[in-house]
Design a protein that fits this description.
The complex is a heterodimer of chains A (114) and B (310).
Chain A lengths: L27 E7 L6 E8 L3 H12 L7 E6 L8 H9 L21
Antiparallel strand pairs in A: 1-2, 1-3
Chain B lengths: L3 H10 L12 H20 L1 H5 L8 H26 L5 H9 L17 H21 L5 H29 L3 H20 L11 H6 L7 H19 L9 E3 L4 E3 L5 H11 L3 H14 L1 H16 L4
Antiparallel strand pairs in B: 1-2
Helix pairs in contact in B: 2-4, 4-7, 6-7, 6-8, 6-10
Classes of the chains: A alpha+beta (114), B mainly alpha (310).
């Protein structure tokens, strides 16, 4: 079920997001699910768990209640490395060489389908 | 030179998605945090009115359905907290703020479930209204939120259909059973219409949310969609919608309907609905009572790590 709670007149649209919490926050895990044989694992969300075993059990309950997967991976979120968008743009641009593409080569019609 | 803000808006305007590591305006991030946190809290609190009937469901079949539905609501809350965390907030802090009564959730859960027909009616109307809203949100500009909504919508369809089917059974049953269904509709109709929020003219943030494509359809338009869809379904059940002004308008091609009691609406939003205090107190107590389980899980993980197991 859903939706934003309407703002009362004069109420700030900003909510508190920090609070004192008790105990240890559980580490975060990223969850990847293989929907069926023949396709790759796809990232589906994240969850919190104390260790890999309980992370897998939670992943099964949270993300595959209706047989959405035949295989599940969990990876500690802190172990993921990535390009930030700005770096990624540079990285992708340097690979934009048209001679790498099949469409860069003209083949005479009489040769037929290639 | 294109500014970051222009680049952001261009992505949104092109119907592309904004992803967690993209630059985004501070107000966009804050609006989403508020909306996704409230949405997540709503799913979690939403387990209570239905959980109230698990032990008293009239058959094993209905009990199993209800448990699966309540488990789904927990799952939806978890998908949404997961989406909120991509915006740089912590789940345990959001929960703590809910327990302290500093965060709100959908007002519909501040009404009590008084008879068994309430459970079917919630599936039909409350989940029906939620689907109308959430189908729109699958097209929201923020990627993780939109993706979560796709999963949720699939499962909500089960929620709505099981509810309506349960009402068909009641309405084909005894006079008493049908009276239960009518009583439930009488109590849930108006709160369900309130789920779409204030009139567009009163809705302070609609314009900005529409420009950011967080919101795609206005409150009044969604409410009209819901009424048009629901009236024939009530007719099929042979139930009477408690609105003397409800009638088909040939010119508009829509149903006209009466005015919501906005005083009641704001009373519940501000915390004085029939169940506001109970819901938060129950959630906070469950969290407190589970403290030893969380501590034990941490201790177990530490012990295993010390012993060199994975």
């Amino acid at each position: 079920m859903t939706y934003e709670v309407p703002l009362a007149p004069g109420e700030s649209p900003e909510i508190d997001t920090t609070a004192e919490t008790e105990g240890v926050a559980w580490p975060m895990w990223e969850v990847f699910v293989r929907a069926r044989r023949g396709v790759s694992h796809v990232h589906i969300g994240s969850l919190h768990a104390t260790d890999a075993e309980t992370a897998l059990q939670n992943a099964r309950d949270v993300y595959t209640r209706r047989g959405e997967g035949v295989s599940v991976w969990v990876v500690p979120s802190s172990e993921i490395r990535s390009f930030e968008p700005d770096q990624a743009a540079e990285y992708v641009d340097s690979n934009e060489k048209s001679y790498r593409l099949a469409t860069a080569y003209e083949i005479p019609d009489e040769v037929g389908q290639m | 030179m294109v500014t970051q803000e222009e680049r952001f808006q261009a992505i949104v305007d092109a119907e592309d998605k904004i992803e967690p590591t993209d630059w985004m305006p501070d107000a966009y991030r804050k609006t989403l945090i508020r909306q996704i946190a409230q949405h997540a809290h709503s799913e979690i609190i939403g387990m209570q009115p239905e959980g109230n009937w698990i032990s008293r469901a009239p058959s094993l079949h209905r009990k199993a359905i209800l448990m699966a539905k309540v488990q789904d609501e927990a799952g939806h809350g978890l998908y949404l907290y997961s989406a909120a965390e991509t915006l740089g907030v912590r789940r345990d802090e959001l929960q703590e703020l809910l327990h302290q009564g500093k965060h709100k959730y959908s007002s519909i859960f501040n009404y009590p479930t008084l008879n068994w027909a309430d459970i079917g009616t919630i599936g039909w109307l409350v989940d029906g209204a939620a689907i109308t809203n959430q189908v729109m949100l699958t097209r929201c500009s923020y990627g993780p939120y939109a993706r979560g909504m796709v999963r949720i919508c699939k499962e909500e369809s089960f929620h709505q259909r099981q509810g309506y089917e349960s009402l068909i059974k009641l309405c084909h049953g005894s006079e008493e059973q049908k009276a239960l269904a009518q009583d439930a509709l009488d109590r849930w109709w108006w709160p369900s219409l309130m789920m779409f929020g204030p009139h567009d003219t009163e809705s302070t943030h609609t314009e900005q949310s529409m420009a950011w494509k967080i919101k795609r359809v206005s409150n009044d338009d969604l409410r009209q969609q819901f009424v048009d869809m629901t009236v024939p379904q009530a007719d099929y059940l042979g139930l009477r919608i408690p609105d003397p002004e409800l009638r088909w308008n040939e010119d508009r091609g829509h149903y006209d309907f009466g005015e919501i009691d906005w005083d009641e609406f704001w009373l519940v939003v501000k915390g004085d609905g029939p169940m506001n205090r109970d819901r938060v107190a129950h959630k906070a107590a469950a969290w407190q009572e589970g403290a030893w389980v969380r501590a034990a899980a941490v201790a177990h993980a530490e012990k295993k790590a010390r012993r060199g197991a994975v």
